[in-house]
Amino acid sequence: QVQLVESGGGLVQAGGSLRLSCVASGSFFSINIMGWYRQPPGKQRELVATSTSGGSTTYADSVKGRSTISRDNAKNTVYLKMNSLNHEDKAVYYCDADIHRSGTKYSYWGQGTQVTVYA
User: Fold this and answer.
1) Angle 42-51-65 (CA atoms, 0-180°, nearest 5)?
2) How far is the C-alpha of 15 from the C-alpha of 83, rounded, in Å?
3) How far apart are CA 6 and CA 28, in angstroms?
4) Among 43, 34, 75, which Cα is nearest to 62's?
5) Nearest-CA neighbor of 109 among 39, 34, 44?
6) What is the DSSP annotation of the chain?
7) Which of 13, 57, 93, 108 qualifies as a FRET site for 50, CA 20 to 30 Å off?
8) Burial 96-106 (b: 16+ CB within 10 A, else e)
9) Interatomic CA distance for residues 96 and 45, integer angstroms
């Protein structure tokens, strides 16, 4: 019913930047919250950033100040730009979309995309 397609991941030089994109498609009226999560090797999945349909944003402390999340509601697309990448940023990054339907919240996840940082 809802599909999330990610792009922009890959190999990034240490100190460099990346931009991830995620577009949602399917049958839904609107998406309340779109966000990015990541799972580094040997760790639990953690929040990176979120964006509400009203424009509010949140960031994890580890990326605050060097990351920007944005969204295009008309295109149902969310973006994540990260600067000054280091080896701690190596992880599988996941796109998330939360949809409210008939008073119930539904969460959908992308397939995940690998981000690797090289020296």
Assistant:
1) 65
2) 7
3) 19
4) 43
5) 34
6) -EEEEEE--EEEETT--EEEEEEEEES-S--SEEEEEEE-TTS--EEEEEEETTS-EEE-TTTTTTEEEEEETTTTEEEEEE-S--GGG-EEEEEEEEEEETTEEEEEE---EEEEEE-
7) 13
8) bbbbeeeeeee
9) 12
pLDDT at position 98: 94
pLDDT tens track for 7-57: 999 999 999 999 999 999 998 888 999 999 999 999 999 999 999 988 899
Q: How far apart are CA 22 and CA 37, in angstroms?
A: 12
Contacts of 41 (CB under 8 A, 6+ apart): 90, 91
53-110 pLDDT tens trace: 888 999 999 999 999 999 998 899 999 999 999 999 999 999 999 998 888 999 999 9
Nearest-angstrom CA–CA distance, 56 and 114: 27
